[in-house]
Q: What sequence folds into this?
């Protein structure tokens, strides 16, 4: 049997999600044929790791400027795009033009203009782009979809969604490329694309109008100084800076072998600093955001995201004309132990709860099992769907193409625009995403 050939671009922190199953569990049907990254240290570290851990044969690795050479020489069937968000469109389009299909990490891209370029390339080439919305595959999220699709709460009219990022995970977006809007689109694109996608998919609706507000209220130099924490702003980064020891936001790249190998040892060939001070000047994204969204079906969403919370997770209430669902996940608290070592998550605080209440009825608790691994058990399921020769039939519509990728990123893009002009923004004014459709499931 011919193996499906994969090449990857972007060999940073996320890429094991794809290359490990190709080299391991799905090796009988899949083959990794090339790795591309601007850092030779990073791409070779992953390659050596795969050789060591899975016994794969050595394969060529390519510098960023040789991406097209990789395509010509290695002739992948599918290219996996895992570079910083603002670069996705460029590598997606070049892969499609070559004749490969694409798997792109979320967000598909960061604004409507770049999405238009992807959309045109899909139409021109007839190739496909999958957006890896792994959150859809988490057991709790899937259960919510099942219940709504079965009519358990009638027609959905209103959603209230609050997401909390803690001072470990949330802070991490302020240490590197994510902290610049031109690279990540800000958290309303980079992070909220997961949340807007869940909502679009849960209620099977396409978003129409967005009004958003946001601000940088916690990270950044000015905020720390205003809180009397000027001492935390005195160094540009953490690693190798004795003065930063004891700083609860410190990240020590030398304290973790993977961080050291991937980022510290690669500083000289990529210039990428993974541990910049979260209380420095120049951050251009928000850490506190609210958005109101109206859907083409008439449903309304009230959304909020904060990136400096003591704990992490989300809660969502979905109201329909026959009842209401309340779903909450607690992921991790960020606490600091007595020896000042950062600790994420005492296990006892993790969990999920799902409650269904119909009009004029008692509430029912519905059990949800939340596995420890891979984004609450989501990653192994989407990997099976992507890489298995015979993936289990998918009845929940969890596979997403480029249009469904756009339906969520365009909410964030419209939110960015709305924050700029101080007024609601119609998504169709940014990109006319199949104006004849109301339902997400009508999109590719
Ligand atoms: N679905 C999820 O849960 C999830 C989780 C984490 C990251 N992601 C996504 O995965 C993608 C990668 O994130 P990450 O955490 O691995 O980031 P990262 O910074 O660790 O890695 C990015 C890699 O891209 C490389 N790169 C940068 N510019 C390049 C260029 N011009 N050409 C080639 N390579 C280049 C960097 O050298 C680096 O190795 C992002 O789009 C992110 O949104 C998704």
A:
């Amino acid at each position: 049997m011919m193996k499906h050939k994969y090449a990857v671009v972007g060999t940073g922190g996320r890429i094991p999600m794809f290359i490990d199953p190709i080299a391991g569990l799905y090796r009988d049907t899949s083959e990794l044929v090339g790795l591309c990254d601007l850092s030779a240290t990073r791409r070779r570290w992953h390659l050596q790791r795969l050789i060591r851990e899975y016994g794969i044969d050595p394969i060529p690795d390519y510098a960023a400027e040789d991406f097209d050479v990789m395509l010509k020489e290695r002739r992948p069937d599918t290219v996996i795009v895992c570079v910083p968000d603002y670069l996705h469109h460029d590598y997606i389009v070049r892969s499609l033009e070559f004749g490969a299909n694409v798997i792109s990490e979320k967000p598909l891209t960061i604004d409507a203009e770049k999405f238009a370029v992807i959309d045109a390339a899909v139409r021109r080439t007839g190739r496909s782009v999958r957006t890896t919305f792994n959150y859809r595959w988490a057991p709790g999220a899937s259960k919510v979809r099942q219940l709504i699709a079965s009519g358990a709460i009638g027609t959905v009219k209103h959603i209230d969604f609050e997401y909390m990022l803690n001072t470990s995970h949330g802070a991490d977006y302020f240490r590197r490329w994510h902290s610049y809007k031109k690279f990540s689109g800000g958290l309303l694109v980079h992070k909220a694309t997961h949340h807007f996608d869940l909502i679009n998919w849960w209620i099977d609706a396409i978003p129409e109008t967005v009004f958003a507000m946001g601000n940088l209220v916690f990270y950044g130099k000015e905020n720390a100084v205003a809180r009397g924490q000027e001492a935390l702003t005195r160094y540009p980064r953490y690693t190798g800076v004795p003065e930063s020891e004891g700083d609860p936001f410190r990240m020590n790249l030398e304290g973790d072998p993977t961080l050291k190998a991937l980022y510290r040892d690669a500083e000289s060939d990529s210039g990428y600093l993974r541990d910049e001070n979260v209380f420095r000047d120049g951050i251009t994204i928000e850490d506190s955001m609210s958005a109101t969204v109206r859907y083409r079906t008439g449903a309304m969403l009230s959304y909020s995201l904060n990136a400096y919370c003591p704990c992490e997770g989300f809660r969502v209430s979905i109201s329909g004309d026959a009842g209401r669902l309340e779903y909450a996940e607690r992921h991790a608290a960020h606490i600091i132990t007595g020896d000042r070592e950062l600790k994420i998550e005492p296990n006892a605080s993790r969990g999920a709860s799902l409650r269904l209440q119909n009009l004029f009825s008692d509430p029912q608790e519905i059990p949800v099992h939340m596995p420890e691994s891979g984004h609450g058990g989501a990653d192994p399921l989407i990997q099976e769907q992507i890489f298995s020769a015979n993936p289990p039939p998918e009845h929940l519509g969890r596979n997403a193409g480029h249009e469904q990728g756009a339906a969520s990123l365009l909410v964030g893009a419209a939110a960015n625009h709305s924050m700029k002009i101080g007024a609601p923004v119609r998504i169709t004014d940014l990109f006319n995403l199949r104006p004849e459709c109301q339902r997400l499931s009508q999109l590719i």
